[in-house]
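Lab notebook, bench 4. The sequencing result for the construct came back, and we need a structural model before the next group meeting so we can plan mutations. Quick request posted to the team channel:

Model the 3D structure of this chain.
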Amino acid sequence: MNKKIIGLCAAVLASATVVAQQEQEEAKVQKLEEVVVSDSRFELKRENSGKTVIKITAEELKRNQGKTVAEIINTKSGFSIAGSTSRQGTVLGVFSRGGRGRQVLVIVDGVRVSDPSSVGQEYDLRLLTAANIESIEIIKGAASTLYGTNAATAVINITTKKAAKDAISGNFQASVGTNQTAADQNFDVNDFANSARISGTLDKFTYKVGFSNRYSDGLSAIVTPENEKDDFSNYSTDVNLGYAFSDRFSVNVYGNQTKNSGEYDESFGMLDAPYSFVSDQKRAGLSSTYKYIKGSVVVNGAYSEYSSENKSAFPSAYEGKNIVVDVYNKYNFNDAFYTVLGLNYINDETEYAEVQDFSIVDPYVNVVYVSDFGLNLNVGARLNNHSEYGSNFVYNVNPSYVIKNTNGYVKLMGSYATSYITPSLNQLFGNFGANPDLDPEEDRTIEGGLEYAANDKLRVSALYFNRNEENFVFYGATGYDNAENKIEAKGVEVELDYTPVNALNIGANYTFTEREGDAGIRLPKHKVNAFANYNFSDRTNASLNYTMVGNRSDSDFATFPATNVNLHAYTLLDLYISHTLINNKLTVFANASNLLNEEYTEILGFTTKGANVRLGLNLTL
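Done. Here's the predicted structure in token form:
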């Protein structure tokens, strides 16, 4: 382990301890989250939810300042995001419950986001800025009845930060860090991140304007003898304006532009190359809520444009547009029956040899029953009407039963759900291997498990899942095609969250995943995450995070035909420390990642980071 890293971390820890002893203040505890929303669209107590919903709170995001959204989600059970701990700008592979990125749906402030010009209609997590996010809820498992196509293995539901209640408030965050491999610990500052947000409330009017950027250099995209540096940059601008016409009726309009650009190398043959890419996202939307006795009507809609250009030996450029509108009525009959009745509209468009598009119109219904004797039931159905494929019916049944005691509860839960993924425009009409005769992918998911919670201090859950995929779309010798065989993915997820004393919170999760029917590259069979968070005082906090990624395989494209290569397991240890210099105003933080400077391979042939240090501050005015 590098002595400089050890010395720095020891010094910071010692300083934090001294400050804590001087202040001698009672540490605050962040209690376990009791309310979840995403699996029903109602605020329900966790004990009444039939899912093990993951809630990434504002407090947890504060403990991960300087990290990307992909890095944060990668520590959660059921997820493995290939590329999240590699060089900035690496293309991310999002795997959840043995699935692929196109089976994970991303929602931002109530609106699904997906790039219609991409191969699988995936959303690039590199376009998200963690500093602009208030919270993240993750539903694992099929959720197509509430959220539609692509919601086959998980839904990542992101809520951005709201406008401040004061007339004007500003928040500024800045950090700098090293960007180095395990073999070259030069400690040059090559990674920079900044964000600024101005917001406020003027009577019934709210406003928010934000800007963020990130730049990194110093690492080659691919491991080569020369290791020529490849840079990456991200720029994002957000504007949000809201008006409350009354206590019942409010409207928000917003706009966003995010641009990624960077350099990369030749992956076929693993050579340094002067390649580059640019991707640009522009989105404008509206969110409106009308509340009435026992219910509300919500309208969410957005228009998005995506463009990307790759300059390489095989240059390409794509442009895509989509319109998403989701209108639904929530009604609470008597605190026992909760209903959602909605209509979702999607139109995707991309230009290849000519403009191609398709549209989806989905009516859907979801009903939640919360009894006074422990039984909870969440059921739903959706009729997908696709311009290319006609009608497709999906449904879910999610019962749970709660046994309460004086300390907490034991919850038994299970679910059976179907979902679908329609082929993308690229797969149907694109320039490479398109097949207009593809069938939609159809999935079935079964879950069963239990959760135990006690005294707001302990929560333990264990869950088994089993997924079947039919008509899985893959790229073969002649282009895109449907697999004749079924894909089966099964596994176990175990989670622990424990607060033994007010100042200390510890947690861990373990995921076992097995995928049968194809190679399942970059998907670890075993993965462990653990953390310990300690509040030395109201002002000083430290977190230690551990990750173990088990053996998995990857494709070696240096051979023809490509062969599968086994990648060895690896472990990572991160340390984060923050201290508030001025209450509610100024916080400084330090993050040491890969503390043990372990050399490992995340994606075959691509550069991974060794021990690195990041220092930053967060200022609120």
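The first helix runs from residue 3 to 23.
Will bring this to the meeting.
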